[in-house]
Write a structure and sequence with these properties.
disordered C terminus; 9 helices
């Protein structure tokens, strides 16, 4: 009944939430019709796509299939190789792919290639970015390099609102690949996030005695509001 109603009113539906099923686990990835399905909703403005799977359905593919999207919540794991990401970013059309988005939620691990893309692409309409994935801040620094994150955070300072959540990795020790202390790295990122504008930065920090004095950031939630 629900599917029939959804199909009947597909031309006017503006918001959809989808739980993604990876087809590669049963050897039928080529039959994945996610993008074809999304194209059936020409008025779609808000999309939530979640699932505990890696995915070949990229953000770029979604925006091409749904050109009127203004809000995207992307919760799939990005499994593209650096070469594949590089090819996507070298396509001029992808440089402007996010130009119509007003809100973007990236509820996934974000590789270095996408960090560089978000730093350089056209974010004309984007006013709010959320990264609620809860990854370890210093693992992220190790993975994508501090200089890339500093540029990215400085770019985020131009948005109205940026929400990020970082949680320590308690299963493995966190050793940064930098001569600087974790606290120095943290405040460098905060300063980059502040940018040149007269902003205020609100942080909720919880102390956890399991960590040494440089690792008291048990939970960090940064909200930057213009």
């Amino acid at each position: 009944m629900y599917s029939a109603l959804r199909y009947k009113y597909r031309a006017t539906i503006v918001s959809i939430s989808i739980i993604y099923q990876d087809m590669s686990c049963i050897g039928t990835e080529k039959f994945d019709k996610t993008l074809d399905y999304l194209k059936q909703f020409p008025s779609l403005k808000k999309l939530t796509l979640t699932g505990n799977y890696d995915s070949k359905v990229t953000i770029f593919d979604i925006l091409k299939s749904c050109p009127n999207l203004t809000s995207l919540d992307y919760g799939l794991a990005l499994r593209d190789t650096e070469e594949e990401i590089g090819a996507l970013l070298n396509d001029p059309a992808n440089r402007n792919a996010l130009s119509n988005l007003k809100e973007l939620v990236l509820n996934c691990s974000i590789p270095a290639g996408y960090i560089k893309y978000l730093t350089e692409c056209d974010l004309t309409q984007l006013s709010k970015l959320e990264i609620p994935y809860g990854l370890d801040l210093y693992d992220w620094v190790n993975d994508v390099k501090l200089e890339n994150l500093l540029k990215f955070f400085n770019r985020l300072s131009t948005l109205d609102t940026t929400d990020m959540c970082f949680l320590p990795n308690v299963d493995e020790p966190r050793n940064t690949r930098s001569d600087e202390t974790k606290m120095t790295i943290f405040f460098k990122l905060v300063n980059a996030l502040k940018g040149k504008k007269d902003l205020f930065c609100q942080m909720d920090i919880g102390d956890n005695s399991l960590y040494d004095e440089e690792e008291f950031f048990y939970l960090i939630i940064c909200n930057v509001i213009q």
